[in-house]
Amino acid sequence: MLPQDSPPSDDASRHAASMVEELGAGVVKRATRLADGRDLIYYDDPGTALPAERSVDPRVLDGRPETATMRRDVLTGDWISIAASRQNRAFLPPAHLDPLAPQTPGNASEIPSLYDVAVFENKSPSFGPGLAAATADAPAAADPPRDLADLDAPGLGRTRSSVGRCEVVCFSPEHEGSFGTLTPTRARTVIEAWADRTAALSLLPGIQQVFPFENRGEAIGVTLRHPHGQIYAYPYLTPRTQLLLASVRREGDDLFERIVAFESAGPRMVLEAEHWVAYVPFAARWPIEVHLAPRRHVADFAATSPEERDELAGVYLRLLRGVDALYGNPTPYIAAWHQAPVGVGRDTVRLHLQLTSPRRAADKLKYLAGSESAMGAWIGDIAPEAAADRLREAIAR
């Protein structure tokens, strides 16, 4: 992790990567900064053909936007981040203007050098630097949350600065693709990057939860075709995680252990390996919904073993390619990696993937109508057992 409490030296943002660290599976981490002071981290494949030196970011960039403001919905207790700077983000640019591709003379993109995997701070983040991250390039947030009790306090019109971190994870320098199109070696590098960033972001002051995810497909709302995902580091416990913690309190601390055993013995299991299992959940909401979880209790990616990471690369690719084989062409999805919060639930909330897709037929999508959108009361279109049968067949193909 790059230092967060002090500004870069006068020319630190103009130098190629100088902080080098060897990670697991032969992955090499090279950390540097972009021209406006944002962190950029290269993760090199084992045995990469790339040179050790990386290009300097030559751009002259505007200052970073002020940290957004979040407002509390008094009816639900949810915090809503108002990040107006996101309105200016790129929308389906042509390949020669891909902002996630390596820079060329005609494309002043976000990444100066050719890379295997690259992670950088989002230029227009929903959650931005807080007090501890203040530098000349990133001013201090005006009113960060004090603690979880502060966030839960009652009152109308309550606001706080949206402190946190939003990072972009580029899976490949190619212009199009997704995690499922990667090689096993590259998939393993991305998993190592997820683990490294989870550990680093969990240490930032005020961070309560770290969330890696991938949005895939224009039907989901993706605005860049480049193979990439994101990582959000939140200053609060998300609504979904708060419900999950309540379920653990209601059902017992061994809830995830019992879920894995229950699904392993039932008709919805779609893929089993030594360390991981994938299944359509008993009460699936979406036409395509599958969960992938480790057999043992693991709180987050940083806590996984080298053996679990090695196996996950192949298992996850098999699962994603099976999802694409359901209809013979790419399936839009959200791949959400739920991790235990930083400070609570570490012994009870288990790392797991929730992959969902609105695709209910080859040419039909499920839209969230009144019951789902307004009331949160879901109506499933496909029986989970039937969905599991189809997905098993697709994975076998």
UniProtKB/TrEMBL annotation:
<feature type="domain" description="Galactose-1-phosphate uridyl transferase N-terminal">
    <location>
        <begin position="155"/>
        <end position="237"/>
    </location>
</feature>
<dbReference type="GO" id="GO:0005737">
    <property type="term" value="C:cytoplasm"/>
</dbReference>
<dbReference type="InterPro" id="IPR005850">
    <property type="entry name" value="GalP_Utransf_C"/>
</dbReference>
<dbReference type="InterPro" id="IPR019779">
    <property type="entry name" value="GalP_UDPtransf1_His-AS"/>
</dbReference>
<keyword id="KW-0548">Nucleotidyltransferase</keyword>
<protein>
    <recommendedName>
        <fullName>Galactose-1-phosphate uridylyltransferase</fullName>
        <ecNumber>2.7.7.12</ecNumber>
    </recommendedName>
</protein>
<dbReference type="GO" id="GO:0008270">
    <property type="term" value="F:zinc ion binding"/>
</dbReference>
<dbReference type="InterPro" id="IPR036265">
    <property type="entry name" value="HIT-like_sf"/>
</dbReference>
<keyword id="KW-0299">Galactose metabolism</keyword>
<keyword id="KW-0479">Metal-binding</keyword>
<dbReference type="Pfam" id="PF02744">
    <property type="entry name" value="GalP_UDP_tr_C"/>
</dbReference>
<dbReference type="GO" id="GO:0008108">
    <property type="term" value="F:UDP-glucose:hexose-1-phosphate uridylyltransferase activity"/>
</dbReference>
<dbReference type="Pfam" id="PF01087">
    <property type="entry name" value="GalP_UDP_transf"/>
</dbReference>
<dbReference type="InterPro" id="IPR001937">
    <property type="entry name" value="GalP_UDPtransf1"/>
</dbReference>
<feature type="domain" description="Galactose-1-phosphate uridyl transferase C-terminal">
    <location>
        <begin position="266"/>
        <end position="393"/>
    </location>
</feature>
<dbReference type="InterPro" id="IPR005849">
    <property type="entry name" value="GalP_Utransf_N"/>
</dbReference>
<feature type="active site" description="Tele-UMP-histidine intermediate">
    <location>
        <position position="228"/>
    </location>
</feature>
<comment type="pathway">
    <text>Carbohydrate metabolism; galactose metabolism.</text>
</comment>
<dbReference type="GO" id="GO:0033499">
    <property type="term" value="P:galactose catabolic process via UDP-galactose, Leloir pathway"/>
</dbReference>
<comment type="similarity">
    <text>Belongs to the galactose-1-phosphate uridylyltransferase type 1 family.</text>
</comment>
<keyword id="KW-0119">Carbohydrate metabolism</keyword>
<keyword id="KW-0808">Transferase</keyword>
<keyword id="KW-0862">Zinc</keyword>
